[in-house]
Amino acid sequence: MKENFERISWKEYALRIAEVASFRSEDPYKKVGACALDFSNRVIGVAYNGLAPGVNVSDNFWTDRDKRRPYMIHAEANLLSLFKRGECNLLACTLLPCSCCASMISAYGIKKVVYKETYNRDTMAIDIFKFNGIDCEQIIF
Ligand SMILES: [Zn+2]
């Protein structure tokens, strides 16, 4: 725990906002949040994983963990829908992005990515970010 007088970094700031956003996710298995800062460190987007806007499902949709998976929109995909390429400097995600999202993040020209938790099913993002010259850092608080 940090002392009260210690100021958190922009990376931690964005990641903590992403964490708050994750609490809004309707996914009972994996709640992921993401936050984007522009080049002035202003928040330009906050998102979480979930179904497409306006889609309603019955309660038993959620009982099968694997069946629901293809319909879930990742937090990063929802986040990228909120701004244009070149506008975001730092993307924070509570979970290491999957390889698909890592490719999209690269296409958006984002230069810094921070995450909290590693996604064990897919760690290719680390290589994709390195390949594309994106600074990727795990932050644990
Ligand atoms: Zn993803």
Short description:
A five-stranded mixed β-sheet has the order 2-1-3-4-5, sandwiched between helices. The protein has 141 residues and is α/β, with parallel strands linked by helices. Helices cover 28% and strands 19% of the residues.
Would you kindly provide a written description of the structure presented here, covering whatever features stand out?
By secondary structure, the chain is of the alpha/beta class. Helix content is 28%, strand content 19%. It has five helices and five strands, in the order αββααβαβαβ. The chain has helices spanning 10-22, 65-68, 75-80, 99-107, 124-131, and strands at residues 33-37, 43-48, 90-95, 112-117, 135-138. It has a five-stranded mixed β-sheet, sandwiched between helices. The relative contact order is 0.18. It binds zinc ion. Zinc ion binds at residues 74, 76, 97-98, 100-101. The site of zinc ion (ZN) has 6 residues, from helix 4.
Q: Can you give keywords for this protein?
A:
141 residues, alpha/beta, five-stranded mixed beta sheet, 5 strands
Amount of beta strand: 15-25%
> What is the string of SSEs from the N terminus onward?
HEEHHEHEHE
Kindly report the average pLDDT value: 94
- Distinct small molecules: zinc ion
Strands in their spatial order, largest beta sheet: 2-1-3-4-5
Largest sheet: 5 strands, mixed
Distance between the termini: 8 Å
Which structural category fits the helices and strands? alpha/beta
Number of helices: 5
**Helical proportion, percent range:** 25-40%
Radius of gyration: 15 Å
Q: Would you count the extended β strands for me?
A: 5
Uncertain regions: pLDDT < 50 for 5+ in a row?
Answer: none
Categorize the overall geometry: globular
